[in-house]
Amino acid sequence: MKRFRLVALVAVPLLLFSSRSDYSSAQHKFDLIESGRLKPGARVSFTQRELNAYVVQELPKAVPQGVREPKLELGEGTATGSALVDFLKLEHAAGNPPGWLVRQLLEGERPVMVTARIRSGNGRATVDVQSVEISGFTIEGRLLDYLIRNYLNVYYPDAKVGEAFEMSYGIDHLDIQRDRVDVLLRK
Asked: What one-character-per-residue DSSP string does 73-129 give?
């Protein structure tokens, strides 16, 4: 038991430092890309750990309540984001107090997982949502398309799902692997 406490005393500060270090590294890389100081054709790699540390730090700034424990997992050309989501808190934060029935249906935190395929090239990218899982219930296909059109696009009209959009800062394409995302600038 004493050994466990010693390991915990050493490991916890190291993990916290690692998380801060990963966040700082990701922030520095984003700043470099946005500054326009990189050479044409440059490649900037973000590890999965850096991206997760960045999301953990930045998400509360964008969504102060209603989302906890965000996590990003990368695959070959895919990304899966998961979190605990309280839809009622999100609705309240957006200034949309839900009615009684919606409150009863959405009350409490729910595990949510979204998987998307990301294609990119020639300065454009397309994000195709493949599935959404809420509390173990998977939504895909026509129902998912319906929810994207009638919920996501209504509340977030600037969201581009299933349609190509221009990438900023001279980015040519993204190479998404299991452990990292490479951002490649135009030559």
From this structure: EEETTEEEEEEEEEHHHHHHHTT----HHHHHHH-SEEEEEEEEEEEEETTEEEEEE
Residue ranges of domains in the chain: 2-185
The CA distance from 122 to 124, in Å, is 6
Question: pTM of the prediction?
Answer: 0.83
- Residue identified by tokens 């969201």 is 159
Q: Rounded CA gap, 80 and 115, in Å?
A: 4
The predicted pLDDT at position 15 comes to: 44
Residues 6 or more apart in contact with residue 155 via CB below 8 angstroms = 94
Taking a C-beta distance cutoff of 8 angstroms, is the pair 70, 81 a contact?
yes
Chunked in runs of 10, what are the mean pLDDT values of the chain (187 residues)?
43 54 96 95 97 93 89 96 89 74 77 95 96 93 88 81 94 96 96
